[in-house]
C-alpha cells in the first residue's frame, strides 16, 4: 500500500513517525517522516473493504468502518483503484415503527418449467413474524414467479390482519407492472388486495438484501405442486443464517 504523502518544502511527508526523532537523534528538518507522534488512522482501508489487504494489523488504515463512514456507508459509491466499476454497499433495513416489511421472491427452473414463490414478514425491530413457501402449479417464466410471490405474500399477510405494509421485491419489472395502470390477472389481483390495507409502499431492492425471501422461494422448489402453501410461524433452520445476517446489518458489495 502506498504511503499517503503531502508535499512540504520539497519533501513528501508521510503519515509515519520518524524513528530517529523518537530517540532524539534526527538532524534533518524537514524530513520525509513526521517529527511528532503519528495520528491514529481515520480512514478505512480500501483494500480491507475489498477483502484483499495484505498488511493485516500493520496496515496504516482502519480495518473497520470509521465513525464518519459508518454514518454514510451505503449512501455513496466507493471507487476502488483496482476495480474500475463503482461498488455500492447495500444491506437490508427494517421498516419504520408501525409498519411491517414483506420481502417476496420467485424461483424458476427451465427444467420442467417449475416455479416457486417465497417470502418473509418482519416488524420494525427486524423480528421474524412469518414466512411462506409455495410450489406453483402453473408458471412459465421467472417474472411470473415473482408476481405470484407478491400475490401469495399479500394474501397471507392481509388475511392475518396486517394493514401497514412495505412490500419489497428484487424484480424491478414486477414492481413496474404493479405500479402500471394496465396489467394482466396477476397484477389486477395484487392491486385489488391493496384496497384491503391502510398504507402500502412498493420497493425494488437488490437481490443481496432479499436473501431471506430467496431462501423461502428455493425451498418452494423442493415442495410438491399438489401441496398447499406452507406458512412458517417460526423461522425454520434452513433460513436462520440469512435472518441473522439481516438482523446484524450485514453489508454486501455490488
Automatic annotation (TrEMBL):
Keyword field: Metal-binding, Zinc, Zinc-finger
Zinc finger (C3H1-type) positions are 39-66
- C3H1-type domain location is 39-66
- The answer to whether UniProt assigns keyword ATP-binding to this entry is no
Residues spanning the membrane = none
The molecular function terms of the Gene Ontology recorded here are: nucleic acid binding; RNA-DNA hybrid ribonuclease activity; zinc ion binding
What's a Pfam family this protein contains? zf_CCCH_4
Q: Where is the signal peptide?
A: none
* Zinc found in the keyword field: yes
Q: What SUPFAM superfamilies does the entry give?
A: CCCH zinc finger (SSF90229), Ribonuclease H-like (SSF53098)
The protein's name: Putative ribonuclease H protein
Please name the source species.
Answer: Glycine soja
Question: Taxonomy-wise, where does this protein's organism fall, top ranks first?
Answer: Eukaryota, Viridiplantae, Streptophyta, Embryophyta, Tracheophyta
Amino acid at each position: 500500500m502506498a504511503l499517503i504523502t503531502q508535499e512540504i518544502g520539497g519533501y513528501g511527508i508521510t503519515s509515519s513517525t520518524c524513528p530517529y526523532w523518537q530517540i532524539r537523534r534526527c538532524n534533518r528538518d524537514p524530513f520525509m517522516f513526521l517529527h511528532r507522534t503519528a495520528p491514529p488512522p481515520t480512514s478505512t482501508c480500501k483494500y480491507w473493504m475489498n477483502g484483499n489487504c495484505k498488511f493485516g494489523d500493520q496496515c496504516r488504515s482502519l480495518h473497520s468502518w470509521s465513525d464518519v463512514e459508518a454514518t454514510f456507508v451505503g449512501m455513496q459509491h466507493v471507487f476502488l483503484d483496482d476495480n474500475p466499476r463503482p461498488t455500492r454497499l447495500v444491506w437490508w433495513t427494517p421498516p419504520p415503527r408501525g409498519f411491517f416489511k414483506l420481502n417476496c421472491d420467485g424461483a424458476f427452473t427451465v427444467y420442467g418449467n417449475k416455479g416457486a414463490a417465497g417470502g418473509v414478514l418482519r416488524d420494525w425491530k427486524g423480528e421474524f413474524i412469518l414466512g411462506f413457501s409455495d410450489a406453483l402449479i402453473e408458471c412459465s417464466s421467472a417474472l411470473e414467479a415473482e408476481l405470484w410471490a407478491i400475490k401469495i405474500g399479500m394474501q397471507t399477510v392481509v388475511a392475518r390482519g396486517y394493514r401497514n405494509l412495505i412490500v419489497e421485491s428484487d424484480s424491478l419489472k414486477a414492481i413496474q407492472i404493479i405500479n402500471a395502470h394496465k396489467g394482466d390477472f396477476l397484477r389486477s389481483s395484487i392491486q385489488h388486495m391493496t384496497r384491503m390495507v391502510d398504507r402500502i409502499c412498493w420497493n425494488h431492492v437488490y437481490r443481496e438484501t432479499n436473501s431471506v425471501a430467496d431462501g423461502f422461494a428455493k425451498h418452494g422448489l423442493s415442495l410438491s405442486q399438489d401441496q398447499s402453501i406452507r406458512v412458517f410461524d417460526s423461522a425454520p433452520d434452513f433460513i436462520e443464517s440469512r435472518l441473522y445476517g439481516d438482523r446484524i446489518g450485514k453489508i454486501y458489495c455490488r
